[in-house]
């Protein structure tokens, strides 16, 4: 039995506790494939040390920090690396009761996959568990159903091409996976025993999602992901990925982007940006292209604001948040399988997007 973790820039104390709960399992014939998808160096170095403390776990670093978070690609890499007949998709926030794997082995059927109940812990209880792990008679805030934590036959995951790699950031990738597995004829089993607990952690503030941050965020991405899941379902889309699913770029691929062949410098003018991403980028095949968008000083002047309020004819500008959303949508819809580097400056006044049109898409490993 093998368990897959997908990780990026998360609190390492939760990782340690999750793996510690696996160390206490009554069933011991298992391995962990821990896939770090593009974490920053300070996170990746720290989490690698922790993962390597557990003899049953192997750490893999794929992607690089310039790529957007894609849980599907991380898990698909793990699916390709796995050699066991059955796979458990895990999560760094989850704690496993000592009989979880023993139960999972009993539930393993070649024609079905299993989903589990999960109890949610309060902040106080989570902190207590970090001091002393003991999942007996533990208090929960509520109990729910999991979509993303499940037991799957490996061949069933391979038959549908793993998780749909369209999904970025968070939302719907797990529901979509379950829907397509059912579509393939594999049956669903719901385990009603409470065997999993979810560690408390702070949620990303909704208001921050609506403003530009150094950490890339796409406005309305949860709804976009939901729409894609429902579209897959309505179209009976069984295998949405290319044949190269599960392949990932590596940190060395980031070096390819450090010396672009073409550099395009633009202000945050609407027409210029729409033309660049709708037409200009297509004119540079077989090249590495860098687009640098800076917030124009004029955009924040009183003169521009007065002209806008009076309805006088002037160039339309985009906020840097709107620029961010424009580029991220282009990545999701057109460039998600290419090697690119996306970054936002510390002062939030400049965005850089570098993309490689020279080399093959989908990565090498």
From TrEMBL:
Keyword Transferase in annotation: yes
Gene Ontology MF: a single term: transferase activity
Name this protein carries in UniProt: Glycosyltransferase
Species assigned in the record: Gelidibacter salicanalis
Top-rank taxon: Bacteria
Pfam families the UniProt entry points to: Glyco_transf_7C (PF02709), Glycos_transf_2 (PF00535)
Domain Glycosyltransferase 2-like: 9-132
InterPro entries for this protein: Galactosyl_T_C, Glyco_trans_2-like, Glycosyltransf_2, Nucleotide-diphossugar_trans
Keywords assigned: Transferase
Domain Galactosyltransferase C-terminal intervals: 145-185
């Amino acid at each position: 039995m093998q368990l897959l973790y997908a990780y990026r820039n998360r609190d390492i104390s939760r990782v340690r506790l999750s793996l510690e709960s696996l160390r206490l399992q009554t069933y011991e014939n298992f391995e962990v494939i821990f896939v770090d998808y593009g974490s920053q160096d300070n996170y990746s170095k720290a989490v690698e040390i922790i993962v390597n403390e557990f003899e049953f776990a192997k750490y893999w670093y794929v992607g690089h920090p310039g790529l957007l978070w894609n849980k599907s690609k991380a898990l698909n890499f793990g699916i390709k690396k796995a050699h066991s007949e059955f796979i458990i998709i895990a999560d760094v926030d989850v704690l496993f009761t000592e009989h979880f794997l023993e139960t999972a082995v009993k539930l393993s059927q070649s024609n079905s996959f299993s989903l589990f109940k999960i109890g949610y812990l309060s902040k106080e209880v989570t902190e207590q568990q970090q001091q002393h792990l003991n999942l007996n008679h533990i208090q929960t805030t509520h109990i729910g159903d999991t979509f993303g934590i499940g037991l799957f036959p490996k061949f069933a995951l391979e038959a549908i091409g793993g998780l749909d790699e369209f999904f970025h950031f968070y939302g719907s990738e797990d529901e979509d996976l379950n829907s397509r597995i059912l579509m393939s004829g594999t049956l669903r089993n719901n385990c009603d025993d409470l065997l999993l607990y979810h560690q408390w952690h702070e949620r990303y503030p909704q208001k921050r999602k609506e403003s530009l941050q150094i950490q890339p965020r796409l406005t309305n991405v949860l709804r976009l992901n939901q729409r894609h899941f429902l579209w897959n379902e309505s179209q009976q889309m069984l295998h949405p990925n290319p044949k190269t699913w599960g392949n990932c770029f590596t940190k060395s691929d980031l070096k390819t982007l450090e010396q672009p062949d073409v550099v395009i410098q633009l202000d945050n003018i609407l027409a210029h940006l729409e033309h660049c991403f709708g037409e200009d980028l297509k004119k540079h095949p077989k090249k590495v292209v860098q687009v640098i968008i800076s917030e124009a000083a004029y955009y924040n002047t009183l003169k521009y604001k007065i002209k806008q309020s009076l309805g006088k004819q002037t160039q339309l500008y985009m906020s840097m948040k709107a620029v961010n959303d424009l580029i991220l949508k282009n990545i999701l819809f057109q460039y998600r399988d290419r090697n690119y580097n996306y970054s936002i400056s510390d002062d939030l006044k400049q965005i850089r997007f570098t993309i490689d049109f020279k080399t093959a898409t989908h990565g090498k490993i």
